[in-house]
Amino acid sequence: MANATHIGLDQVRQQLRQPRAQLKGRQASDEARAEVRTLIGLPPKDGHRRDLLIEHLHVLNDHFHGLFERHIVALAAEMRLSVVEVFEVASFYHHFEILKDEATAPRITVRVCDSLSCSLAGSDTLLRQLQNDLLDVKVVPVPCLGRCEQAPAAQVGQQAVAQATVQTVTERVVAQQTSPHPLPEAIRLEAYRQSGGYQLAMQVAAGIKDHESVIQCLESSGLRGLGGAGFPAGRKWRIVRSQPGPRLMAVNIDEGEPGTFKDRTCLEADPHRFLEGVLIAASVVGCEAVYIYLRDEYHEARVLLTQEIAALQAKPPCALPRIELRRGAGAYICGEESAMIESIEGKRGEPRMRPPYIAEVGLFGRPTLEHNFETLYWIRELLEQGADSFASQGRHGRKGLRRFSVSGRVKHPGVKLAPAGITLRELVDEYCGGMAEEHTLYAYLPGGASGGILPARLADVPLDFDTLQTHGCFIGSAAVMVLSQHDSAREAALNVMRFFAHESCGQCTPCRVGTDKAAQLMTAPVWDADTLQDLAQVMGDASICGLGQAAPNPIRCVLQYFPHEVGAPA
Predict the structure, then answer these.
(1) If you average pLDDT over residues 432-455, what whole number do you get?
(2) Which of 8, 334, 409, 411 is the least buried, fewest Cβ under 10 Å from its Cβ?
(3) Model confidence over 215-241: pLDDT tens digits?
(4) Pairing between strand 322-327 and 287-294?
(5) Rounded distance, CA 366 to CA 287, Å?
(6) Which 8-state DSSP code applies to residue 140?
(7) How deeply is 166 buried, as exposed, middle or buried, from its count of CB atoms within 10 A (0-12, 13-18, 19+)?
(8) What is the model's pTM?
(9) Contacts of residue 325, Cβ cutoff 8 Å, sequence gap at least 6
């Protein structure tokens, strides 16, 4: 053909060898990189640590009230990561708001809890009123804030608002009171040491108190993990201790289960009792570094813990492991141990497939001792008082003590230290002042959102590990939410299913699709029991982690114990 264009192979090769005028994709501007460097600092000699990505995102998000695209691009350049990698991490977490460069960040964000306990206290009405009245700030519903005893709970910026009203929230917005509250009643380092604190940690570190005797004390006491799974603490220490070093430790204070607030309450009062437990565990198991993962909603606790870790490091009672405090970013799934580890590594908080288990291959690929806050909080008392003293405290044939987070229709909600195996009726009458005025017991959730729902006729079942399974429930983190005759079990189940749908990480289809579909079906006046049972079966059998596996519990409980509410056959 006369007009055909012929390009020789040598010409193509020559063009490919030519340097590009600019790199592919959007490039970071000098101005944006300067803003990022001002906040996170210049790169160290070996570059920024990959596992600090989420911490750096928090710094930017706090300062600019959002994550602008230009800063995401600049942060990726500073950390030598792809923009896609930074974006996919930032977009996973609810507390990071990604904004177009031309957008205006919200001046203040007001968060109103819409989980069950706060919903019972009128948070839905509070949310609507605030959205109508506060037109110049962002007002959003959020899952559990971990302040169920203060329902309805809200946050203005980073400041918690207990028993929130339109007036109290508006006053803080007008005054721009967005910083965390101080905690003047907390026991600080010097006061803790004057009361005998860290003596045990020093004895363990020096070998005066034999490591084997410490593990035997845990085993004899029957202490189990108090974050929900209930794995025996002493056995876990033995397993991780037997693994080749270096070994690491990860502490879970994510506490995102609706109805749970015991860890926050204890941490805000006595942080060093927990930290001493950390030091003892790290010494006995041989962990060279400790990573403490604290949920982002606990701003007051984070300020306190940051200060007290610094004080401890400045005046250490013994050789300390490296301690790093990591900040969650609003993802309930990170309460699952492997998802938490992914988040500590600066990644999306998606659960890992197991095996291998994290005791063998955990944080940064090393054997990892993972513990809940309250488990470590018990260590000093157990070693001082002895295993027999702890084990003798139970009721109804059970052993030990439990901290119950009690909320809902009781006179005095809060954290109640009570014997393991206590019944719901005993817990309410003896520790909570009874039911609230004009309320009688109708139902209760013994283990938070995922623990199922039981009717009042089962209020005499002992509350402990292994006592509730025959009734289709479990105690989990001992988050007890109490319902009265003014409430509905079906509405409670719908509330928690919407929570699960919102918090599913989306990694596995049975959970991602199942929770959302179940929430839709549960809005019907008459439930399609067969379809819901099928969904429950698939979610329970095929989900990767405990979220999808436990999400069906409220469905099954309503169909079994409250069929009259959903038109199901009794």
Answers:
(1) 97
(2) 8
(3) 999 999 999 988 877 899 999 999 999
(4) parallel
(5) 10
(6) E
(7) middle
(8) 0.94
(9) 292, 294, 302, 305, 306, 309
